[in-house]
């Protein structure tokens, strides 16, 4: 079984505080007054410590609210609202997960809030919902199809892996919202009937000894990529796995599931030099030779006995990359207007027509518990952030998914930690739609929207010569391979740490975004430059395949910048087209 890591001191202190008060009704606000710091011996704590302790309070208040609403739902009365209440009775929906399969978006897990019936107004959901995607609708006219689940269990943020090859969705992990989870090996599969319905059943695995050794967890990011399912470290406890008792623990590792063979594996994350958890993972399907995973927004625990000062919030200025071909971790710095450290955001990734990938990040909450309404774009391979002027209602505890050709579906969430849960969600049925190309919000899903194209500010940035400053030759080679279809690189550079500086001295290599950005003029200039350089080599007595002196060290060895080195001589860059 994997080694378990306990959350840092601040998290444990807050968790213990809530365990002492779990029989009392918790107020609507999830943020406690400042005097509580004194009870934890932190009267003179630094601003950084206080900021991170705020996060501990908010995070565990978050967990406590899940527990309290679920227990109340089970004990107070037997009433359960319809999974799709009338618009005038709907209040909120949160903690859901979304999987897109064929022409439907499937929504599973989470809770729903309805108009107060005098006793309770938020309930766990035990059905799956589907939304049709080949027909346009608004959040007022959308038609939810309800899929009943035999012997249902209540899940918050369950893991969903869609498998288009078999018209299936796999279901695992997530926390059980009512009582200690009975069992640890529930792995379910949904078989679609192609009409928005289908059936859930238990799924057999090819290597049960490996699967049974995995702990169930919650708050672990997940994605699918080129026929495999992935999920990163999560938070484990008795609400997720009956083998876990006492305080919540961080369960490290990258769990993989190969859909074609139903085979599980637990890959190490030791090369990251920290224990990652939370955050989001996106699939870069065409990058590298077999695809890459981009991991961002994670928290970092340094060891199993980490104290509060050792707990770190990863900045968005660096992106961790997992090479699916070599199973190695690397990293790459970013430029531009990156988000500040935050959690409980959502994201989608989409591939552009010119060889780019764009990752859209929406909402979330800062370490000071400020809920955000912002949208950011990270473009790859430029690794540059853009903050959009596309404000909407702040969101936390929401989920999003790529639907149609160019739209982001956002489901659920709430706009403030201290929000009265009887206040109706400003979004009808808790649904919002964001056009990824036009970068505008709407209440309408457009089934006839054209293909995705990168937003204007992204294209303008590349056209002006924007490019990544690679932090390693290994990373740059991966993106060159993904666009030129070259063989898999043979160098063995791997991730050995993480820096928060994006000002590397590594060579700027222009992004490979196709002819749509440079045009014919740039192509002609490149051909001329190549001819000129080859002529110079011949004039110096070098064959076209010879070694360029600017890439050698004194002893004649080929120059190759170390993985995390900030040194080295950058060759002169040709003027951009």
Automatic annotation (TrEMBL):
Composition-biased stretches, type Polar residues, lie in 481-506
Q: Where is this region: Disordered?
A: 481-508, 542-577
* Membrane-spanning segments: 509-533
Q: Name one Pfam family in it.
A: Kelch_KLHDC2_KLHL20_DRC7
Matching InterPro entries: Kelch-typ_b-propeller
Q: Which UniProt keywords apply?
A: Kelch repeat, Membrane, Repeat, Transmembrane, Transmembrane helix
> Record keywords: Transmembrane included?
yes
Gene3D superfamilies (alphabetical): Kelch-type beta propeller
Q: Which domain of life is it from?
A: Eukaryota
This one is known as Kelch repeat protein
Which organism does this sequence originate in?
Dactylonectria macrodidyma
Q: Lineage of the source organism? A: Eukaryota, Fungi, Dikarya, Ascomycota, Pezizomycotina
């Amino acid at each position: 079984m994997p080694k378990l890591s306990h959350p840092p001191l601040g998290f444990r202190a807050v968790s213990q505080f809530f365990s002492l008060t779990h029989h009392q009704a918790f107020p609507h606000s999830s943020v406690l007054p400042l005097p509580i710091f004194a009870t934890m011996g932190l009267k003179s704590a630094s601003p950084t410590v206080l900021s991170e302790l705020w996060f501990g309070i908010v995070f565990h208040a978050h967990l406590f609210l899940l527990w309290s609403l679920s227990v109340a739902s089970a004990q107070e009365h037997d009433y359960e609202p319809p999974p799709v209440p009338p618009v005038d009775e709907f209040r909120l929906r949160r903690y859901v997960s979304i999987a897109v399969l064929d022409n439907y978006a499937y929504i599973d897990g989470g809770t729903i809030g309805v108009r107060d019936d005098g006793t309770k107004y938020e309930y766990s959901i035990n059905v799956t919902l589907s939304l049709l995607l080949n027909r346009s609708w608004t959040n007022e006219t959308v038609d939810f199809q309800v899929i009943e689940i035999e012997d249902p269990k209540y899940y918050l943020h369950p893991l969903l892996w869609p498998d288009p090859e078999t018209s299936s969705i796999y279901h695992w992990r997530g926390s059980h919202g009512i009582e200690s989870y009975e069992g640890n090996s529930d792995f379910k599969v949904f078989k679609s009937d192609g009409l928005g319905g289908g059936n859930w059943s238990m799924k057999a695995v090819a290597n049960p000894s490996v699967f049974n050794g995995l702990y169930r967890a919650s708050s672990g990011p997940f994605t699918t990529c080129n026929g495999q399912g992935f999920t990163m470290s999560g938070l484990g406890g008795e609400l997720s796995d009956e083998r876990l008792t006492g305080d919540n623990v961080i369960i490290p590792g990258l769990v993989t599931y190969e859909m074609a063979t139903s085979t599980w594996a637990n890959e190490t994350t030791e090369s990251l030099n920290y224990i990652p958890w939370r955050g989001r993972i996106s699939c870069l399907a065409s990058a590298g030779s077999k695809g890459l995973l981009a991991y961002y927004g994670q928290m970092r625990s340094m060891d199993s006995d980490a104290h509060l000062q050792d707990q770190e919030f990863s900045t968005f200025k660096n992106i961790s990359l997992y090479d699916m071909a070599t199973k190695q971790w690397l990293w790459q710095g970013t430029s531009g207007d990156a988000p500040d450290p935050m959690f409980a955001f959502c994201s989608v990734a989409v591939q552009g027509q010119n060889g780019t990938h764009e990752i859209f990040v929406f909402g979330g909450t800062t370490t000071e518990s400020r809920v955000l309404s912002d949208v950011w774009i990270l473009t790859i391979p430029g690794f540059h952030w853009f903050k959009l002027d596309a404000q909407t209602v702040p969101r936390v505890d929401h989920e999003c998914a790529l639907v149609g050709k160019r739209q982001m579906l956002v489901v659920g969430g709430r706009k403030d930690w201290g929000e009265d849960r009887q206040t109706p969600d400003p979004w009808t049925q808790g649904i919002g739609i964001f056009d990824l190309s036009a970068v505008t919000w709407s209440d309408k899903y457009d089934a006839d929207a054209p293909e995705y194209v990168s937003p204007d500010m992204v294209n303008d940035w590349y056209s002006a010569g924007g490019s990544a400053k690679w932090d390693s030759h290994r990373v740059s080679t991966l993106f060159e391979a993904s666009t030129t279809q070259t063989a898999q690189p043979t160098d063995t550079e791997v991730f050995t740490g993480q820096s928060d500086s994006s000002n590397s001295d590594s060579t700027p290599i222009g992004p490979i975004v196709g002819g749509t950005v440079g045009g014919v003029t740039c192509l002609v200039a490149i051909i001329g430059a190549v001819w000129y350089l080859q002529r110079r080599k011949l004039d110096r007595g070098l064959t076209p395949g010879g070694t360029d002196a600017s890439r050698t060290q004194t002893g004649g060895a080929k120059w190759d910048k170390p993985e995390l080195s900030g040194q080295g001589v950058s060759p002169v860059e040709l003027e951009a087209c």
